[in-house]
Amino acid sequence: FVPPGVLPLCRQPLAWSRARRQPPGPPLAPCRAFSNNKILVELDESSGVATMKFKSPPVNSLNLDFLTEFCISLEKLENDRACRGVILTSAIPKIFSSGLDITEMCGKSTEHYAEFWRAVQEMWLRMYSSNMVTVAAVNGSSPAGGCLIALTCDYRIMVDNPKFSIGLNEAQLGIVAPFWFKDTFVNTVGHRVAERSLQLGFLYPAPEAHRFGLIDELVPEEKLQEKAAAVMAQWLALPDHARQLTKSMMRKTVLDRLVAHREEDIQNFISFISKESIQKSLRMYMEMLKKKS
Amino acid sequence: FVPPGVLPLCRQPLAWSRARRQPPGPPLAPCRAFSNNKILVELDESSGVATMKFKSPPVNSLNLDFLTEFCISLEKLENDRACRGVILTSAIPKIFSSGLDITEMCGKSTEHYAEFWRAVQEMWLRMYSSNMVTVAAVNGSSPAGGCLIALTCDYRIMVDNPKFSIGLNEAQLGIVAPFWFKDTFVNTVGHRVAERSLQLGFLYPAPEAHRFGLIDELVPEEKLQEKAAAVMAQWLALPDHARQLTKSMMRKTVLDRLVAHREEDIQNFISFISKESIQKSLRMYMEMLKKKS
Amino acid sequence: FVPPGVLPLCRQPLAWSRARRQPPGPPLAPCRAFSNNKILVELDESSGVATMKFKSPPVNSLNLDFLTEFCISLEKLENDRACRGVILTSAIPKIFSSGLDITEMCGKSTEHYAEFWRAVQEMWLRMYSSNMVTVAAVNGSSPAGGCLIALTCDYRIMVDNPKFSIGLNEAQLGIVAPFWFKDTFVNTVGHRVAERSLQLGFLYPAPEAHRFGLIDELVPEEKLQEKAAAVMAQWLALPDHARQLTKSMMRKTVLDRLVAHREEDIQNFISFISKESIQKSLRMYMEMLKKKS
């Protein structure tokens, strides 16, 4: 019963079988692990599950290099018939990702801002529309863009530690989350929670994030990877084709909105970030961060 | 304060009185009970409440005959000025309705698929836009299309038995719930619960369905009809005209979407269901069901 | 990251500082308190917080005079650079506001209905789009239009007393909440709760309103103003510019809908309210109220 306008997403043959996928077609090129500067990728071919571990010290901030590597890794997995799901987690203690790298938005050229923003959009578009099952195993704090990565996943598990917090806290920095951050947030926690949280730039400690539905499940730190694997197995038990079409149906409106306004959104970002008042604020914020550390 | 674009739905005169409706106009034709092959209908003229009992063994599956009789019965009640509300329930133990009849989607002609799908649409359109108060008294399991019927009602009461489950589990069968199933579901449980439930094809045991808001109220089996009557009385205490306009205002966007894309939706269904891979899956599923029983 | 289409709302310079705002520009005209016939307004210049106290006995009903004074007071504050937030509360015991004044809708001329309805729209448009932080300190019952005022605020605190109730109970009066009341309600409590509550014209006792998210927080009566001030301080800790842009982004769709259909909505109101059946109902309702008191 394919709804009108749903794009064909089918990479997988329809199968009743819940058994491990037996990929059809020619034998696959071996693909077990690859890594680049900022992300470690491991693929377990027997389960079809990859893990992407963010390893960009000190805080996995999303700079242009990270975003580029992220999208390349994701595309590799997306096109790899041995891969059906991906778990996102951090290789750095206490932090999942600190979000967009402010140095990319400060004192750079218009061209740089455009390139950076396009990379942020690209990351969001690929994750939110991924054919793979995507699970965030949030093992540390995850503000702003870090929270966004988690929001794009199909399921979010977080370490049950009130010292780890998560949220779209852009307003606290004097900036505004773009409309597609907001749309993803509203789709997850509903309009009222989103309205209040975004205006106050709330960072929720893990237990509170769970109460509001921003996080689906809390687990002790030592159980995180095990739980992520179990959740993944549950999602992979479904026939890929039907699951993918359903996911696309749920997310299409919000995805289409950015696709339709992508260039406009880049121009908006550039003109906002280029304001002297904003530049000054970001510089002050960076000073504050330096003093802190 | 009628919002723009709301259709005139008024069959009832506006009345402050909470007392039993005194129908204006000429005396009514007697209408106490009628039944057809698959549905028993009883109308209590003193309360204005009809009960439609599904009686299509073994599992009240929604085949073309059932859907046709359902729509005819519903239309009769809708046009009967003595009837203001209808309670839907099952005459078969342990099952409310098993949903769309798979035999209608397997090995049939294109014309048959079109006729069947139009009947499913018709059932949904009539129920979701009904001028009557509609209460689902869910006294058994209610997967897929069975769940949809419950979702179209104004209120859902379910027997408090974890052995009875309910949900839109299409993805488990390798098929995709159409967009209007999804819209109805989102309107009831919100975007996030719908996204997760539809992708996983979840069937919720009654208590869990209640926790997520898919079911409004749980009662012991022996209290079900009594509770349904009490709920109905509460809804009928409101002036029909205002209640109907309000209901229409809440559901119009979603109703209009199917009306605008009805033929397209039929064509989509036909081309999806006619695929050899889907036919094969449905055959395998029916085999499995046969072995089970 | 300004989303496309967001209007520039900026009255405040961007500031990292959480400290008390130091208003730039020429010295301010003194503005401490002003009042008119129906509303007491006090502005604490040191905190930037104004309080608007409704004082229109017996029940703060929203007649044309009240609405006019409300909008004038609000505009004054909105344009006053010393004012960043406003707390709405009642100076009359046990009632916040009884909602739209029925006498304005009964036995009046078409011109009067149009003027009245435009004033109701104006109040909603100004409140829902206010640049200021708006907190409702609900210290009494608040049906219909009274509930609407609370819904337009950024945050709702209510006295924890089950004798005080709140809700959009229009259906109980045989009338229909306009689409923009409905949109505001859906944005606050979600589609399902709104659908059920509006059809049944529910008035929720404060504790239940809190459970459904219609009210954000309950406090003992003697703590209400203190809590409102504390909440206000929390919201004012954010940079105004980012908070305002975020608020606008969240509410724009719903605001634009009324702006686009404003005249149509007035005509709809006039033709609905002018019906003899509606006039009769409203007269009966007023009789009932008179007998009660």
SSE layout:
The structure is a homotrimer of 293-residue chains.
Chain A: E1 33-35, E2 39-44, E3 49-54, E4 61-62, H1 64-78, E5 85-90, E6 94-95, E7 99-100, H2 110-128, E8 133-138, E9 140-143, H3 145-152, E10 155-159, E11 165-167, H4 179-189, H5 191-200, E12 204-205, H6 206-211, E13 217-219, H7 224-236, H8 240-260, H9 262-273, H10 276-292
Parallel strand pairs in A: 3-5, 4-7, 5-8, 6-9, 8-10, 9-11, 10-13
Antiparallel strand pairs in A: 1-2, 2-3, 11-12
Helix pairs in contact in A: 1-2, 2-3, 2-9, 4-5, 4-8
Largest interface, counted by CB within 8 Å of the partner chain's CB = A-B, 31 and 36 residues
CATH class of chain A: Alpha Beta
Write the CATH homologous superfamily of chain A: 2-enoyl-CoA Hydratase, Chain A, domain 1
The N- to C-terminal Cα distance of chain A equals 55 Å
What oligomeric arrangement do these chains adopt? homotrimer
- Overall shape of chain A: it is globular
Strand content of chain A: 15-25%
* Sheet with the most strands: spatial strand order of chain A: 1-2-3-5-8-10-13
Low-confidence stretches of chain A: 1-30
- Strand/helix succession of chain A: EEEEHEEEHEEHEEHHEHEHHHH
- Main β-sheet of chain A: number of strands, strand sense, barrel status? 7 strands, mixed
CATH topology title of chain A? 2-enoyl-CoA Hydratase, Chain A, domain 1
Catalytic activity (chains A, B, C): (2E)-tetradecenoyl-CoA = (3Z)-tetradecenoyl-CoA; a (3E)-enoyl-CoA = a 4-saturated (2E)-enoyl-CoA; (3Z)-decenoyl-CoA = (2E)-decenoyl-CoA; (3Z)-dodecenoyl-CoA = (2E)-dodecenoyl-CoA
Subunit structure (chains A, B, C): Homotrimer.
GO molecular function, one term (chains A, B, C): delta(3)-delta(2)-enoyl-CoA isomerase activity
InterPro entries (chains A, B, C): ClpP/crotonase-like_dom_sf (IPR029045), Enoyl-CoA_hyd/isom_CS (IPR018376), Enoyl-CoA_hydra/iso (IPR001753)
